[in-house]
Amino acid sequence: MIAIDLTDKTALVTGSTQGIGAAIARTLASAGAAVAINGRSEDKVAAVVDQFNAETGGDRFFPAAADLATEDGEAALAEHLPHVDILVNNLGIFGAVPAMAITDDQWRRYWEVNVLAAVRLIRRHLTGMIGRGWGRVLNIASDSAVVIPEEMIHYGTSKTALLAVSRGFAKHAAGTGVTVNSVIAGPTRTDGVEEFVYQLVDRDLPWDEAQRRFMREHRPQSLLHRLIEPEEIANLVAYLSSPLASATTGAAVRVDGGYIDSIIP
After folding, report:
1. 110, 155, 239, 259: which one is catalytic?
2. Could you tell me the pLDDT band of residue 162, with boundaries at 50, 70 and 90?
């Protein structure tokens, strides 16, 4: 029987008050990790921490409120949370914009949030992981990193960059006991994705019908023919965060429902 044990490990999951990040945080905690919940709002982060601790009857979750899309926010969080064993860069923004209408400010914003926020945190924590001889860095990418969507080129490009960031820092950490990987998440059901779906299909449709139409018209490559559940992403992240995944590094590991048409992981 395979058991994932993250006892005595401290994890930071960015953007973890909802959606995929919240599912990852819950799954890591269920494996024994102490998990920092991150978001920009102190009140929302505190409420989520209280909720998660109440649900689990413990105290594995603790607050780490900060705007990690800024240098000041990252620096402030580092003072509060200097030690991280497992870093999950989940923070990200997305949205549909016609290709020729994406502004310079939108390009810059997506780069700051989706790429530089992860880079800053890796720079902050990777040296300590290497010094301790163990650590895990997971960057949550997207199928859009490989299959660039016409309706959000800026998002896809930022996620492509995140794959390169992961590979490069994995080389820096070579031979140290620290692994750095990307997780290529496919179309996943979250509140944000539900809103995105309704940007592209009739808002008057019931959700099940809207989802089917979205997958049929906009994501026909999916072999699941449905959106992925956040917990399905979290299960892979938990494995890659564990000692069991010690030989997987510098990889872009797919949990995409077969969306990317490739036989190479």
Report:
1. 155
2. very high
